[in-house]
Amino acid sequence: MNISVIIPTYNRFKFLQRALKSVYSQTHKPSEVIIIDDGSNDETPKIQTSVILNSIQNLGIKTKYIFQKNGGVSSARNLGIKNASSDWIAFLDSDDIWDEQKLQKQVEFHKNNPTILISYTDERWIRDDKEIKIPKKFKKYGGDIFERCLSHCIIAPSSVMIHKEILNQVQNDAKVFDESLEVCEDYDLWLRIAYENEIGLVDEKLITKYAGHEDQLSFKYWGMDRFRVRSLEKIVNKIPSQAENDNVSQAENDNVSQAENDNVSQAENDNVSQAENDNVSQAENDNVNQAENDIFSSFRATTRNLIIKTLIKKYDLLLKGAIKHDKIQEIKFYEKKLRELNE
Known about the structure:
Strand content: 15-25%
Shape: globular
């Protein structure tokens, strides 16, 4: 199984070396390692001639170092995806590391579950050289986990291995990660993927995340839900409301009725017995199609309601935060959103 490792980085030369050492130590070697330097102005370009990158190359692993003008982590990952030559992609943030069996365990999972095209793993968090307890809200789940992904991002990018088929399915304007989101871009992508796909879980702590350094994006912005609501609204706007579903169902029923009338008229002109057979077959097909449509409509309605409930909770929290920080414009905006959602 060929795997391209994509590592976006910005001014993290020392962390990047540590991340690369964890790639070098993998028991299942990747096919290539792609480093996307997102406009660093520290020593990061020196990684091209570093001992660790040379060691990786000596294993027969292709390496690419690509420098771009600073465009953010989504832009960097998208560039990495564009340059990846393997069918499978594994993301690794430059301040994280992998357990040496990380790729091997995921390769084994996908060989045993060939219809699942994305998996992730559990993780450990380190702060001040000590492992810290992970909050329950980040508990990991496998399978149909869309609802589990609504509240918070439970999937760490560095834990993900994904087939390009999934990325092609969810990309928008040839871009996988939403570059308009400064943060929560991972939450946005996993949500879009989970809406349509089963996600596998290798339930072992196979990555390590280091918390507490100053340049972590999660520490940069107040009210992270400001970005999550944008992701939720993108999805809910694609799901028809109950009224829209009713209009579609009525149109389908009208078409069925017209088809039945056409069948009867044809039968009168041709053969009555044949018409009766045709009508029975048509009725059976209509019943099957109607049942399938009802199930799908029910699923969409349930999903839409879940998203709206989540949006109400998040806008309510954002309103409280805006009041606390005396942000007048945001207060008016969030109050308007809550009124619309509760109508």
